[in-house]
Prior knowledge:
By secondary structure, the chain is of the alpha+beta class. The protein folds into 4 domains: 3-207, Beta Barrel (Porin), CATH 2.40.160.20; 225-255, no CATH class; 258-313, no CATH class; 350-459, CATH 3.30.1330.60. It contains 5 helices and 11 strands; from the N terminus they run αββββββββααβαβαβ. The strands form 2 sheets. Strands 1-2-3-4-5-6-7-8 form an 8-stranded antiparallel beta barrel. The chain has a 3-stranded mixed sheet with strand order 10-9-11. The longest helix is centred in the last third of the chain and has 21 residues, at 399-419. The protein is flat. It starts with a helix and ends with a strand. The relative contact order is 0.07. The model is unreliable at 17-25 (pLDDT under 50).
Amino acid sequence: MKPQKLVLLLAALCAFGAYTYAQKAKTKPGISAGILGAGNFTKFRVTNPQGRDYKTGVGYAGGVWLNIPLSQKWSFEPQGQWSVLKYVGNHNPLGQFDGTIQYQSVPLLFKYEALKNMSFIFGPQIDFANKLKNEGSTVYFKSQYISISTAISAGVELFPHSLVQVYGRYIYGISDLKNATNPNANKGNIGFYNNGFQLGLKVKLYEKKAVVPPPPPPPPAPVVVVPKDTDGDGIIDDNDKCPTVKGLAKYQGCPIPDTDKDGINDEQDKCPTVAGLVKYQGCPIPDTDKDGVNDEEDKCPTVAGLARYQGCPIPDTDGDGVNDEEDKCPTIKGAADNNGCPELKKQYNFDNKKVLFITGSAVLTKSSKVELNKVLKALNEYPSLKLYVDGYTDNTGSDKINKPLSLKRANSVKAYLFSKKIAADRLLTDGHGSESPIADNKTAKGRAENRRVEFRVREMN
Length: 461
C-alpha cells in the first residue's frame, strides 16, 4: 500500500474511533476556528546518504484551522497552511539541492485534552509542493521533488481553550520526496524525507457555544406487585436467580456455586474461577516463581527460569556474570562488555591506538609490532579464540583509495600474526576506510591515531 493511502486509512480509522466515543459523551464544546503562524525547523532525513547530509533550516508557516469537537475530550482539527521550508546542505556534493521549498500543507490532526491547559495532538499530514529554488537564486522551478507527499505528526498544545494557543509538533516524513528528474534518482536508492519541528501560535477568531443536553425525563410511578417465593427459600422470585431451587441470599437465591466445575464449591475453593486439585485446596499445581513451569516439574521452584532448563535460569558456566546463551566464551571468564570473553585491553594491557601505519601505506610501525605481540599472547593462551580485524584510515584522500588501504592494513596485521604461527582462519579482516574516526583528522596526531586496527571477538568455544 502506498504511503498516501496508508495515511488516509489511518486518519479514517482515528476519526471513526473518535466519533464512536463521542456518541457516549453527555456534552461537548462548540466548533471553533482561527488563524495560525509558526516557525518551521526542518531538515532532510537522507537514507543511504552516500556523502549527503543536511543541517536544520529555519522557515515559517501561516494558515487557518477549524476545530470540530467529537466529545468532551476529543476533537478533530484540519488545518490549511502555506509553509516555507529551508533545507541547508552540510558539505554536500556539487549540484546537490540547498535552498527553499514552498508547500501547501494539510495537517489532519486529532486532539485529546489531557489537562485543563494541555492537549495532545497527532495525525497525518499531506503536503503539496508549490515551487522551489536554490539558495542564492531568485529563480523558482518545479522539478526534482514530488508534488504530493505525506507525513505523520504528533505534539502538544497549551491553553487549548484560550484566545491565543501555543503549540509544538514533530513532523516525520514517510514519502521519499525525490522524483524521476532528481539527480539522485538512480544513485543507490538515496531517499529524501522531510523531518522537523513546527512551533507556533494559534489565534481563535470564532467559537460556537457548547450544546447542553436536555435533562432526563422523570421516572415512572412505581407499580405495586405482591411478592412471590416459589422455592420457599425466603427470597422473592423477582430477586431470586434460581426461583425453583432453594439457595442462599448471598448467592441471590442459588445454591453455593462451583464456578470452575472442579468438584470443590466456591466457599472451600481458594481458586474458585480456575479448576484445580483437592490437595491444593481447589487451585492448580502452583508455580511459585511464576516462570510457567509448575512446582512439581520445576527443579528451581523459587527462582524464575525457562522450560528448556527445567524451570531453572539460563546457566552461567564460567561464573563471569554473562549467561551461556549470550556468552561467546561460555567456559572462560571474561568481561560483560566483551560478550563474556577475555578483554585484550584490561587483561593484556593492549592499546589499539598504538598499532599505527605510515601515511598512505599498510606498513606497520616498529612500535606497532610490540603492541601486536600482546594480541599474539592472548591467541596463544586461548587456542580457540577467533577475532575480527577491522582496518581504518585517516581522511587523507578519497574512499576509493581509503577503503582498499584500510583492508590492506587489516591484512598486514593478519600477516604479522600469521608469521607468528597463528592459523589464518582464526582472523577475519575487513576495511572501513575513513569512517568512525577516533581522533581529530585536522591534526597530524589525530590522523596518526585514525590509521589503526581494532580487534573484536568472533567466538571462543
